[in-house]
Amino acid sequence: MVSTPVFMALAGLLAAVVGGVTLLPLLRAGKRGIWGTLVAAMVVATLGLYQWRGTPAALQVQSIPVPASLAEGIEQLQEAMRRNPDRVDGWVLLARSQQELGRMADAATSYEHALQLAPDEPGLLVEAAQARAQADPKLLFDDTGLQWLQHARELAPDNERAIWLIGIVQRQRGQAEAAAHTWETLLPRLKDGAATALREQIDAARADAGLPPSAPAAPAATGTTLTVRVTLAPALQARVASGTDTLFVIARIPGGPPMPVAVERHPAQAEPLTVTLDDADSPMPTQKLSALPEVEVFARLSASGNAMRQDGDVESTPVQVKLPAGKPLEITLGPS
């Protein structure tokens, strides 16, 4: 286990890295004194927070030198990870810090260490694959990076970043038609501006594959809709007070595959949530809500925000609804 002082040093450096996005111009401009002062201030603030909420005596186990720059902070973090190599968050923090300074090969190695400890984290798999490509002189994804992206998509089928990057890999490898089909699955999830930009990439891939341009964007859904009102039981209302849980409202084919035909994702709240599912909420353009006579609807409260069910998630009992529904569906999530 990492000692409290080391952990607090990591947290302090994380504050420096986050701040570094806006503070790096000062460093590049030669204002290193300002940089060092701001880094020190963030570390001191982190330690002060611990003293307020934790055990101040624990910080006295060893002194924590304040880094004068991000590069020096990375050196300290590397040394901490050599002594405590079993922290996923430490390796991820180190990788992101190295990326900030353009050390892409080092960042890729750090992400690989993190994946050895947490091989089934979709977000981490995607970050690691992208860092591995950034470390390549030609910015190419290798077979390992592709395997990580595919595994991320298996774990989280709606991970848009994984889908986008898989399409890029396919384009890099001359698989233009496959890339177009991969990206087309993203279109229903995107707003107009993003969808238009992606459609341009899809049409370029289709042209390279000798295919005609994709069909024009469909107008806003006016067909079958299903209104669902989700109310959290009192036992769950306290849980969502922190604002970190995610509420999924899902419709799928009764007795069919687990892939939703319509899904909406919202920050969980204590108050009842009303959503209207329609064809625009389909993650797969080939399977629309309006094409089905009946669906199975349920709600899921997720601590991880992952669309795939995880330990600790709470689901309502699925309810079968004939379409079109004559009235809103009422769902209560959690014990009565």
Descriptors:
single chain, 336 residues, alpha+beta, 47% helix, flat, Ig_CycH
Tell me the radius of gyration: 24 Å
Poorly predicted segments: 1-11, 13-64
Main pleated sheet: 5 strands, antiparallel
Give the % helix.
40-55%
Tally the helices. 11
Structure summary, number of beta strands: 8
Give the integer mean of the pLDDT values.
Answer: 78
Q: Tell me the strand percentage band.
A: 5-15%
**Cα end-to-end separation:** 40 Å
Domain Cytochrome c-type biogenesis protein H Ig-like: 226-332
Keywords: Membrane, TPR repeat, Transmembrane, Transmembrane helix
Domain Cytochrome c-type biogenesis protein H TPR: 77-192
Pfam families: Ig_CycH, TPR_CcmH_CycH
Mind explaining what this structure looks like?
The two termini are 40 Å apart. The protein has a domain at 226-333. The chain has helices at residues 4-28, 32-53, 70-83, 88-100, 104-117, 122-134, 143-155, 160-172, 176-184, 192-208, 234-237; strands at residues 226-232, 246-252, 262-267, 273-277, 294-302, 314-315, 319-322, 329-333. The protein is built from eleven helices and eight strands. Helix 6 packs antiparallel against helix 7. It is flat and about 65 Å long. It is α+β, with helices and mostly antiparallel strands. Strands 2, 3, 5, 6 and 7 form a five-stranded antiparallel β-sheet that branches. It has a three-stranded mixed β-sheet with strand order 4-1-8. TPR repeats lie at residues 88-121. This is Cytochrome C biogenesis protein. Residues 226-332 form the Cytochrome c-type biogenesis protein H Ig-like domain. Pfam families: Ig_CycH, TPR_CcmH_CycH. The chain crosses the membrane at residues 6-27, 34-52.
